[in-house]
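tool_call: predict_structure(chain=1)
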Amino acid sequence: MTGDAVLTGDAVLTGDAVLTGAAGVSNDPMVGLLQRFAEDWLNHADAGVCTQIMHSDYAVHIGGIVLNGLEEYVPATMGQLEQFPGLKIAVHDVFSNGRTAALRFTEHGPSTRDDSREAAWSGIALFWSNGEVLVRNVTEEDYTSRRRQLASGLTDAIEAAMIAPWSTAAVPADAVLESRVRLWLESGGLAAADATEIVFDEGGVDHASILDGAEIRVRDIFSAGDSVAFQVSETGAYRVGLGLPESLVGVVGTLSSVGIVRSAAGGRFEGHVVRDRAGLRRALSRG
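tool_result:
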């Protein structure tokens, strides 16, 4: 799955705004919101952008934490941006149906708390809008890989970015495809997936199932054309994969995953998934 978009003509930007309808720039306002989210907000740490592209009640679910409203979200995110000054985001995939959209990315930069050691970690974010601004976000980022890189001083490679992510056009949702993906997820598709078809963006670690006998719940799912984005939670007994003491094997925990898939040959799906291993490890360690 490359996710590369085709650029036709030159993108035209004027200050903060995107001139919709210009050659090479998407006509979809939702994609325009994601562009400002990635470039103006995260890449430039400009908190003033948030009130322009997000509702005051903007709710964010990330790493087992819920941030309700800009009063909670902006300071929390600024804390991360201050820890990683000069942080940048590389976009690998983006799609939209006009009201919901998904973004797959890598964040990278040096940490002021870790002797300026650098890290590059993956994430997948799902967004909802009210037609004018963003109102909700569900994201998982690979904080486990980030912690490993900052501890070792060895930085993971960054996947090539899309050439023109903001030229992506909105396409209608596909309810039939969503139903197929939901059935696949609920039947344990992620745990049974061939690693060559589903890429767990976790820095090259063993992608074996972390939980045994997991009960799977699809919490969010939406589509745009042949692309489906989702969040699932798996609740089961800890088996392996988090470096925890043997005494915690068998303890029940819940793992959140966010992913993007597309149809592949033989009725299968291919795509990328980011799991909240750090959140599960934290919860199990606390008993």
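agent: The chain is about 25% helix and 35% strand. Proceeding to next step.
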